Amino acid sequence: MFPSRILKKDITDSTMLDAREALKSGFGHGTLCTAYRQTRGRGRVTGRRWIDDGRGAMLFTIILEKNSITTSFPLTQLLALALCRRLERGYGLTPRIKWPNDVLLDGGKVAGILVEMEGDYLLGGMGVNVFQDEFPSNLRRPAVSLMQALQQKGAGSMVPLSPDKELFPLLKELEILIEETPGIAEIESRLLGMNSPVAVKFGDPSRNEILIGTLTGLQDDGSLLITPKDGDSRAVYSGEIEQL
Question: What are phi and psi of 157, to 5 degrees?
Answer without folding.
Answer: -80, -10
